[in-house]
Design a protein that fits this description.
alpha/beta; Rossmann fold; Arc Repressor Mutant, subunit A; six-stranded parallel sheet; 6 strands; 50% helix; elongated
Length: 228
Amino acid sequence: MTEILNKNTDKIRLMLIDDHKLFRCGIKSLFECSNKICVVAEASCGKEGISKILAQNPDVVLLDLELGDINGLDLIEKVLAQKPDIKFIILTSHLNEHVINKAMKMGIYGYVLKDVNSEFLDMIVKSVSNGAMWLDKKAVQILREINPNVIPVTQMSRANFKSTHANLTAREYEVLKLVVDGKSNQQIAQILNISEHTSKAHVCNIIQKLVVDDRTQAAVKAIREGIV
């Protein structure tokens, strides 16, 4: 298997582990033009994954849980025993209470569903590399059901919400929730029965009020701070 050498030490060194070659190719293509992330290795099974992690020493590992020969959680446990600084992001199609709970206790940095938006995935890898944690909002809901004290539910009055989040209007709040769901400006316009121009204007206002650079960062901030 061809390895992509990282000649820029400032880039985030990312490794992919998934037993579907086509899926790995798709993920790798997302980062080919990135000036922040470089895929340094990929593996199709658990044993190969462990070997290449130890050899390549990536910053972040993006892996599926179903690898054929080794369960993804077992792989994470084996690697962290030797290299505790490596940050793991689980990229999966499944939500399982036991798996999510165990993965969190092991110290993973991300639990992401495979239907994630490509821009989100780029942002997640960058955030995790900087030490942040990213959990799909469905995984957060499951964790709250297991132990409500782990991730407290944020419930704000409308007045408190306005003062805390730069006076987002009720309509902007509706738009923000749709942005978090990965909807495009056109889709937002159709759902809310407004023009696409108006939808775009709302998104621009949200970006300015939340003091972020783009809609992806707005969605990230909304989830992190419990805005939606």
